[in-house]
Amino acid sequence: LASWPMRRHANDAHATVAPRSIKLGCAWSQHANNALVHIKLEYARRLRGGLVCPECGDHRAVEADGRLRAHGEPAAEPGGERHSHTPMILTPGELIARCEECVRTWEPSKMTVDSHTETYIAEHKVTDPDDQRFVQQVTYGCFKYKKMLKIFLSSLYFKHGGETQRSDYTLYMVFGYVALLRLHELGFSDFRTLVLSQEHFKMSVLLKFLFSAENLNDWLRPEWIKMYDPKFVDEQLIEKILVFVPNVEALQKVLEGRMASEAAKKEEAAQAEDGWDDYEQDEAPSPRKAKGLA
């Protein structure tokens, strides 16, 4: 989604933690500990103004749906230009979908996570270098911290069983990894962009559970300290994520507002449909009238 350079933070959780239950073998790529690629809200500016092609100097066109046309892709309207050397940039929603699918489809018995990720990126034509690194790092992170995330997911589904679906398990895993281990690095503005690209109710449930001091300390901490150093759990996980509680509360209000708006639109549509049905019934002739007309 963007072309910012990779950077490593001195306080990166991956550089400071030494979890007792995780063993990294040769199958893990060097990308596993790299800093997460930033998606930044600059993406919106690039959509509005187009992206200058570094080779020919032309601007890539923006389609009606807000998507940047890939170089080499025919224009939606006649007369559009074509290029072949600048990659397609994924939207926030597409980027999360690629991460989710890449995590879900890995079969450890068949190939290493490196080989799987490289194959997935090639087959699904993830061509932008930053999108590629984002998918790589999230995929590696989800498997590196699989046990930690499993505790989070089990607690989430136990406490909000009536509000969650099993089909969203990997989606919540991806967001759990980004929120728990990369949020300070990514920045809340970018995290907000990713959240708003998803179904609002699902994200509201996730935020309500994950950014709760009670849930973190009473539900997750007792299990996490069985695998990780308590200092890491308290300082690198719980304390860091609770810093964003005010931001999450504001984001929850946005989600609630959008859900209310969507519900109102559905209700209006239903009322309009009911009104049309009533109109058709009123206009339809009664059997007696129909017989008289015959």
What tags apply to this protein structure?
mainly alpha; 294 residues; 59% helix; 0% strand; disordered N terminus; single chain
| Molecular shape | globular
SSE order: HHHHHHHHHHHHHH
Individual helix count: 14
What would you call the quaternary organization?
Answer: single chain
Mean pLDDT across residues = 77
Describe the protein's architecture and organization.
This protein is globular. It has 294 residues and is mainly alpha-helical. It has 14 helices and no strands. It has helices at residues 13-16, 42-49, 92-104, 113-123, 129-144, 146-159, 169-181, 183-186, 188-196, 200-210, 213-224, 230-242, 245-283, 287-293. Mean pLDDT is 77; it is low at 1-30, 39-68 and 75-83. Helix 10 packs antiparallel against helix 13 (245-283). The N and C termini lie far apart (68 Å). Helix content is 59%, strand content 0%.
How are the SSEs ordered, and which strands pair?
Blueprint: H1 13-16, H2 42-49, H3 92-104, H4 113-123, H5 129-144, H6 146-159, H7 169-181, H8 183-186, H9 188-196, H10 200-210, H11 213-224, H12 230-242, H13 245-283, H14 287-293
Q: How would you summarize this macromolecular structure in one to three sentences?
A:
The protein has about 290 residues and is mainly α. Helices cover about 60% and strands about 0% of the residues.
